[in-house]
Sequence to fold (331 residues):
Amino acid sequence: MKRALITGITGQDGRYLAEFLVGRGYQVFGLVRGQNNPKLELVRDENPALELVEGDLTDLSSLIAAVEQVQPDEVYNLGAVSFVQLSFKQPELTADITGLGVLRMLEAVRIVGGMQDNPIRFYQASSSEMFGKVRETPQTETTPFHPRSPYGVAKVFGHHITVNYREAYGLHASSGILFNHESPRRGLEFVTRKITNALARIKLGIQDSVTLGNLDSARDWGFAGDYVEAMWLMLQQDEPDDYVIATGETHTIREFLDVAARLAGYDDWKPLVQQDPRFERPAEVDLLMGDASKAREKLGWKPRVSFEELVATMYRSDLREEQLRMESSWR
Ligand code: GDP
Fold:
């Protein structure tokens, strides 16, 4: 039975990846800080096969102990401060966890078992935010980075240190440059889920409007469930490498609103949306659009869920959840 250790187990991707790997017969371990993460209970209920181990991305010795205890075949480093807006408010914390956390995890892998006969394979969750003020469109594995937030800068460090450990120590370390990927499990702070959740609540009469920031930026949005498969595929290759994972389509926030509002039965979303500079960023990423040709050719990976299907799945899930919440408050 193969063993996998996942950091960021309570996040959207950690939850999908854990399910995917359990489905493939893996024994899956999730790294948790051991203190009251509000999502811990949920993750336990959702995936009873999952085992939790204590450790913190800011504490190397705890990571070494976790890797020693688990003896994993594969390590997936998904743990990070992942919200761009927050990274402007807590840049040092972001650099420590999202950036240096990668180095610590790589060190733990190198020290415990990166060099044995059957070396631990390592996946780093890199991000399209590294492209930032994009130098070319679409973005590929060779597009230069120009990050626009402390989050993006920290991810660039994480990416380069992963490549460096591969080249310097021969680690089987791969970096997946994942474009935005969403799902009903996306945090409510991200614009997609904020919109689908708000429209569900507007539909049910719980609120009147939603307040957003810049509506003109464009993102390449895919379904998180599709993207975790790409992570796994990268670690099944003989050689470690870097891959862009994206749909190749880009849509503005306005277009997202068009689709979501139509699903909720509104022809025009403008009366439902307010704008507030509070939700704008000091520096913005205007447009992201990925070219995942390499992943398609080498990994045989392609996205399955379309943009419209993604928005519909998220909206319907929010509508159901909000309805249930309303009903239980009546009882
Ligand atoms: P990101 O691409 O990782 O920053 O993902 P987000 O979902 O947080 O943001 C995507 C885009 O939506 C960015 O260009 C934001 O500036 C824009 N946006 C507009 N209004 C909002 C808002 O109210 N919340 C968030 N999170 N983003 C917003």
Q: What stands out?
A: The radius of gyration is 20 Å.
